[in-house]
Write a structure and sequence with these properties.
With 336 residues, the protein is α+β, with helices and mostly antiparallel strands. The protein folds into two domains: 188 residues, Fructose-1,6-Bisphosphatase, subunit A, domain 1 (Fructose-1,6-Bisphosphatase, Chain A, domain 1, 2-Layer Sandwich); 128 residues, D-Maltodextrin-Binding Protein, domain 2. The protein is 29% helix and 24% strand. The protein is built from eight helices and 17 strands. Strands 4-3-5-6-7-8-9-10 form an eight-stranded mixed β-sheet, sandwiched between helices. Strand 11, helix 5 and strand 12 form a beta-alpha-beta unit. Helix 1 packs antiparallel against helix 2 and helix 2 runs antiparallel to helix 3. The longest helix is centred in the first third of the chain and has 21 residues. The protein is globular. The protein starts with 8 loop residues before the first helix and ends with a helix.
């Protein structure tokens, strides 16, 4: 018989925990609870065409964006999966203006969870892949149920980060600073199984770029020059030969970049000079994953993981993917 074995995400989390003799299990339990929430959200996403959860919920979130019914569902699932466990002191969500303390009726713990419950949810009506993004930090303040200080930490302090992509299959990808690992949900047994071990962003040939070119007129000269270089329009050595790939769903675009290589870009522009993606629960978690997979993430000037956040919903430009291409983008932006 072939020498093979099945590794569930729970088993993998436990094996990772054994690398840290002083671990008491709380951190591992948080990851397991996130995986459970992802299963519930995945089930509902897959039923979206059959039950009344499509379309808008009728109000806007703190970002000023129309809230979709699935956003509300995913927010509720993530919150209820995490609020009572005794492992968290507070949470931060794209859908809530302030940080979310753990209710007084439940014990509080020593970790902070930041998450985007359903990235790209407006695409669900047209059956495009969407996802959940999460980040875990260690509590640093003396406040039992958390404070802004606990939430506003640079990405370099993340203990873990990950995302779930709900597509043709549901896949959970995460890192605890020891490589990047991917798990595919087997719906027949309800388990996430290890399918992509030690993911590395391909370095060659990384000839894919992902950006919304409809905003080109708003771009800086440096940004235009970089994309022209990728297309071979500038006639310089090493340019050209790149293919454009853009889905319009951050998790899906990053997932493809992680597995296939290249660079994903959401730059600042004349209308949104600080970009549109959120630093704490979108850019930083994906930056941590990219770096652990051998890539880089930048706001166009510096590593995303070094940025000191000033607000819960702070926005940032984002360039992430193959390290060589991110560094090249920085050079073009600086010269432009």
């Amino acid at each position: 018989m072939a020498d093979t074995h099945i590794v569930t995400i729970e088993r993998h989390i436990i094996e990772e925990e054994r690398r840290h003799p002083g671990a008491r299990g709380a951190f591992s339990n948080i990851l397991s609870d996130i995986a459970l929430a992802a299963k519930v959200i995945s089930r509902q996403v897959n039923m979206a065409g059959l039950v009344d959860i499509l379309g808008r919920a009728g109000h806007r979130n703190v970002q000023g964006e129309a809230v979709q019914k699935l956003d509300v569902f995913a927010q509720d699932v993530m919150y209820r999966a995490m609020d009572h466990t005794g492992h968290l002191c507070c949470m931060v969500s794209e859908e809530v203006e302030d940080f979310i303390p753990i209710p007084d009726k439940f014990p509080a713990g020593g970790y902070v969870l930041l998450f985007d419950p359903l990235d790209g949810s407006s695409n669900i009506d047209v059956n495009v892949s969407i996802g959940t993004i999460f980040s875990i930090l260690k509590k640093v303040s003396p406040e039992e149920r958390g404070s802004l200080e606990d939430c506003l930490q640079p990405g370099r302090r993340q203990l873990a980060a990950g995302y779930v992509v709900y597509g043709s299959s549901t896949m959970l990808v995460y890192t605890t600073g020891n490589g990047v690992h991917g798990f595919t949900l087997d719906p027949s047994i309800g388990e996430f199984l290890l399918s992509h071990e030690n993911i590395r962003i391909p370095e060659a040939p990384p000839r894919f770029y992902s950006v919304n070119e409809a905003y080109e007129e708003r771009w800086s000269p440096g940004m235009r020059a970089f994309v022209d270089h990728l297309k071979g329009r500038d006639g310089s050595d090493g340019g050209g030969g790149f293919s454009s790939r853009y889905i319009g769903s951050l998790v899906a675009d990053f997932h493809r970049t992680l597995l296939r290589g290249g660079i994903f870009m959401y730059p600042g522009d004349s209308r949104n000079p600080e970009g549109k993606l959120r630093l704490l629960y979108e850019a930083s978690p994906l930056a941590f994953i990219a770096e652990q997979a051998g890539g880089r993430a930048s706001d166009g000037r510096r590593d995303i993981l070094e940025v000191e956040p000033a607000g819960l919903h702070q926005r940032t430009p984002l360039f992430l993917g193959a390290a060589e291409l991110v560094t090249m983008a920085e050079r073009f932006l600086a010269e432009g």
